[in-house]
Amino acid sequence: MTRSCSAVGCSTRDTLQSREHGYSFHQFPSDTILRSKWIKAVNRMDPRSKKIWIPGPCAILCSKHFLESDFESYGLRRMLKKEAVPSVSLYKVLKSRYEEIQDCRDEVTPNK
Ligand SMILES: [Zn+2]
After folding, report:
1. Which of 52, 57, 61, 102 is paired with 36 by a 20 to 30 Å CA distance?
2. 11 Cα to the center of ligand 1, angstroms
């Protein structure tokens, strides 16, 4: 099964082709604090529970969501820094792009 990026609105798939295009794929960190920072950054809602989405064991993010400065180079290999938190092309970007369409839809905020 091909894995794809877990970020909202991103459909980059973990394939040989995307890797050839220079994308890399990163699993959610096992460190609890860092992991929760990633979850907050992804800011995704679980459609069933209407709660914040928790990444499963196979959840990955593609390199589009990290800054160049989040990576360290070891020769030809590019590694994500230990403390790196995704910050690019996440939900906020998507929201501003679709703001006109989604303006009157408020699915993300749970009703109280
Ligand atoms: Zn992505």
Report:
1. 102
2. 6
Å from CA of 5 to ligand 1 middle: 5
- Give 63 Cα–ligand 1 centroid separation in angstroms: 7
Which alpha helices (DSSP H) does 1-112 contain, by range?
16-20, 32-42, 91-97, 99-102
What is the full per-residue pLDDT of the chain (112 aa) written as tens digits? 789 999 988 989 999 999 999 999 999 999 999 999 999 999 888 888 889 999 998 899 999 999 999 999 888 788 999 999 999 877 654 444 444 444 444 455 555 5
Structure tokens at 103: 């303006």
Question: Under 8 Å CB-to-CB from 15, ≥6 apart: which residues?
Answer: 2
> Which of 108, 71, 59, 64 has its CA nearest to residue 87?
64
Q: Where are the domains of the chain?
A: 16-102
Could you tell me the distance, in angstroms and rounded to a whole number, from the CA of residue 13 to the centre of ligand 1? 8
